[in-house]
């Protein structure tokens, strides 16, 4: 894999790299969510180190005056969820420390969603965290058959939900196999979120989904500050700028860190569509 390809999707390995990229994005009118790369750790010390990195990052965002436009995204498996025996409790403790740091910095945390085996644990952690930090957001994946139920549960006032199609290879017993069904489920999810009382985060590069989300926002009399669009760093950048110019909130998901190799290889291996997804980015930005 070429360094150019990696650079397009990850601004760098160091915290200074992601802070520079964040500064540029915020200056261009976009909001940001930062992901420190890493997942599925089976090492308790690594989970603690990741927690500490997030806490430091949030302090830097506050110092630099970037926290009002920048939140963080967190994979619970990076902070211990996959540890045998007490992984759920370890991840909850670490996530709580990160939420406390986000609260001090004046920003928010969104919990990424990993494969279907983690959904119950992640939503339980979300519920626990929200008791103290009601602004913690969740990601739900339209590819999963259970998601419509989860969306109904999470479309209440104050609830921040990032709707994605889903990036993990999942068995047909729990997920839609056909892309068309995943797309239709995404549209149904958008309707539930836009009609609900929460804060929808429309995370997709798909022009059809973006157009439908905008139509629904209008139908449900939503003002631009009651929902937002989100895209991955380096993908459809002109479209990101266009949406900002048209008055929409656009948040860019920026991953950084040394663990980029695993991130890319897993993304490419997990789902054949992702190979096309990344290759297409080389020719159409
Ligand atoms: P999809 O891949 O279906 O593409 C539809 C259309 O979008 C294409 O036909 C093309 O028109 C356009 N398009 C897509 N990619 C393009 C490109 N590179 N260049 C130009 N046009 C392109 N997943 C997960 O399982 N858990 C998570 O926590 C997250 N988190 C997350 C956060 C954010 C902010 C985003 C944007 C995405 C995620 N994802 C995720 C990933 C998500 O599940 C999904 O894999 C990708 O977003 C790809 O799906 P799309 O909805 O973008 O469209």
From TrEMBL:
Per the entry, which co-factors are needed? FAD
Enzyme Commission numbers on file: 1.5.5.2
Keyword field: FAD, Flavoprotein, Nucleotide-binding, Oxidoreductase, Proline metabolism
Q: In which pathway does it act?
A: Amino-acid degradation; L-proline degradation into L-glutamate; L-glutamate from L-proline: step 1/2
Residues covered by the Proline dehydrogenase domain: 20-277
* Catalytic activity line of the entry: L-proline + a quinone = (S)-1-pyrroline-5-carboxylate + a quinol + H(+)
Q: Which InterPro entries match?
A: FAD-linked_oxidoreductase-like (IPR029041), PRODH_bac_arc (IPR008219), Proline_DH_dom (IPR002872), Proline_oxidase (IPR015659)
- What PANTHER family does the database record attribute to this sequence? PROLINE DEHYDROGENASE 1, MITOCHONDRIAL (PTHR13914:SF0), PROLINE OXIDASE (PTHR13914)
Any idea what this protein is called? proline dehydrogenase
Source organism per entry reads: Nocardioides vastitatis
């Amino acid at each position: 894999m070429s360094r150019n390809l990696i650079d397009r999707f990850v601004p760098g390995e160091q915290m200074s790299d992601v802070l520079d990229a964040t500064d540029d994005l915020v200056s261009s009118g976009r909001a940001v969510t930062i992901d420190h790369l890493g997942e599925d750790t089976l090492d308790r010390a690594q989970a603690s180190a990741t927690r500490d990195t997030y806490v430091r990052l949030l302090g830097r965002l506050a110092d630099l005056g970037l926290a009002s436009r920048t939140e963080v995204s967190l994979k619970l498996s990076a902070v211990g969820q996959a540890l045998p025996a007490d992984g759920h409790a370890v991840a909850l403790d670490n996530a709580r420390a990160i939420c406390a740091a986000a609260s001090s910095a004046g920003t928010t945390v969104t919990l990424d969603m990993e494969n279907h085996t983690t959904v119950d644990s992640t939503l339980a952690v979300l519920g626990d965290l929200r008791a103290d930090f009601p602004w913690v957001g969740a990601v739900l994946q339209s590819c999963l058959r259970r998601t419509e139920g989860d969306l109904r549960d999470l479309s209440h006032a104050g609830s921040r939900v990032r709707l994605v199609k889903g990036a993990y290879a999942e068995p047909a017993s729990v997920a839609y196999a056909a892309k068309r069904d995943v797309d239709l489920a995404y549209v149904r999810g958008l309707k539930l979120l836009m009609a609900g009382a929460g804060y929808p985060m429309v995370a997709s590069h798909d022009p059809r989904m973006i157009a439908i989300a905008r139509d629904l926002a209008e139908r449900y009399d939503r003002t631009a500050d009651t929902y937002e669009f989100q895209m991955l760093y380096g993908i459809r950048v002109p479209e990101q700028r266009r949406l900002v110019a048209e008055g929409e909130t656009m948040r860019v998901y920026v991953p950084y860190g040394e663990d980029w190799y695993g991130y890319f290889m897993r993304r490419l291996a997990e789902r054949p569509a992702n190979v096309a997804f990344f290759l297409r980015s080389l020719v159409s930005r």
